[in-house]
Amino acid sequence: MRWLVSIMAMVWGLAATAHEVMPTIGDLTVTDGQAELVLRLNAEAFAAGIDLDGLEDTNATDQSSAYDALRALPPEELQARMAPVAAQMADSIGLTSGGTAVPLNVARIEIGPLGNIDLARESEIAFSAALQDATAPLVLSWPDGYGTLVLRQQGVETPYTGYLDGGQSSDPILPGGAEPKSGWQVFAEYIPVGFDHIVPKGLDHILFVLGLFFLSTKLGPLLWQVTAFTAAHTVTLALGALGVVNIPGSIVEPIIAASIVYVAVENILSPKMHAWRPVVVFCFGLLHGLGFASVLGEFGLPAGQFIPALLGFNVGVEVGQLTVIAVAFLAVGLWFGRKSFYRPYIAVPASVVIALVGAYWFVERVFL
Q1: Torsion of Cα atoms, 86 then 91 then 94 then 98, to 10°
Q2: Residue 339 phi, psi (nearest 5)
Q3: 352: nearest Cα among 287, 293, 246, 264
Q4: Tens-place pLDDT, residues 274-320
Q5: What is the pLDDT of residue 17?
Q6: Which of 16, 187, 325, 327 could bond to 308 as cystine, CB 3.0-4.6 Å?
């Protein structure tokens, strides 16, 4: 029970002070012998010198106070702070053309407007490089400590798209566009993208799935709920990625938080699954699917390989959800699921914590 309480406290602490770390989005373009790399990033995290590798919350670092202070700066002051940081980034980011190192130069720094300081603003840094051979393959190396980079090639019919962690390098990028990948290759590449959105970065989706898990130790109710949730978010993930349905995040995100509260409160009030539960879970799954679609939209879908990429992402999401359920089962369900104290001392307290976290997120996303 002490272990369970510690886990609950950790989850609540993460939610109450969440400063979520988002991946950097990089767009690489080659035009007239010039390479341009535009990074859309959280400039404050880089200016504070935070090691972003594997980090989910900036409050978990020693630089959290400096980070918060930087977020309160007006754009012109933060831009001045970022000038030496951008120069250092230009020296640290590796770019080779045909195996030869190519120096990067800072082309511009654009800081997003100062809005709600409780939310990270989006800024851009553009780097340029002169290429001696505009046809030679490029390789970009992303430094240790820089977190995750979504690297996308622009301006060609068969662009390169990569997902790099700190310390990793891209595959060779052909300036004129890569040879088209097979559907199976694209499918396999997008599975870890979907998985990563659940574990470790999708804490709200993790809590929703845990809410489904803690309703009952019986396999039937869990299967009904997971099936309804999967079917629903698969539909809206496809529609959202296609652009058929587009609901603003200001609406989707609070409802996702409300869905967490609902499943957790019903767990507290009822020890069994009622007939309406799968229907409600299906409806909430539609909203979760739109949340998945927004992430997939940021990562980008390769031209001509929409279906394999979408299926791979969805499979990754499902594997992530099943991983959460498996870990929860091995941690508590396997050992205590058949005990008389499981519901009053494990399932209900866990659901209370999940409901409180969801309620906090709902208030934060609606009013803050």
Answers
A1: 120
A2: -80, 150
A3: 264
A4: 888 889 999 999 988 888 887 777 666 666 678 888 899 889 989 99
A5: 38
A6: 187
Q: Which residue reads 């800024």 in tokens?
A: 123
Q: Indicate the helix (H) or strand (E) that contains 40.
A: strand 34-41
What crossing angle do the helices spanning 348-367 and 203-213 adopt, rounded to 10°? 150
Any idea what DSSP says for residue 305? -
For 230-239, the pLDDT digits (tens) are: 899 889 888 8
DSSP state of 182: P
Q: How far apart are CA 137 and CA 359, in angstroms?
A: 50
Nearest one of 286, 332, 271, 305 to 179, comparing CA atoms: 305
Indicate whether 21 pLDDT > 80. no
At 24, which helix (H) or strand (E)?
strand 24-31
Helix 219-242 vs helix 203-213: crossing angle, to nearest 10:
150
Nearest by Cα to 21 from 50, 74, 110: 50
Q: Look at residue 2 in the predicted model and tell me its pLDDT.
A: 45
Res. 152 pLDDT band, cuts 50 70 90 = very high
Using one digit for the tens of pLDDT, what is the confidence trace for 240-281?
A: 888 888 888 788 889 999 999 999 999 999 888 888 888 999
- CA–CA gap between residue 262 and residue 265 (Å, rounded): 5
Burial 22-51 (b: 16+ CB within 10 A, else e): bbbbbbbbbeeeebbbbbbbbbbbbbbebe
Rounded to an integer, what distance in angstroms lies between the CA atom of residue 6 and that of residue 83?
Answer: 42
How far apart, in whole angstroms, are the C-alpha atoms of residue 265 and residue 215?
10
Q: What is the DSSP string of 88-151?
A: HHHHHSEEEETTEE---EEEEEEPPP---TTSPPPEEEEEEEE-S-TTS-EEEEPPTTS--EEE
pTM: 0.61
Distance separating alpha carbons of residues 357 and 261, to the nearest angstrom:
8
Which residues fall within 8 angstroms of residue 57, CB to CB, at 6 or more apart?
A: 14, 17, 18, 19, 20, 21
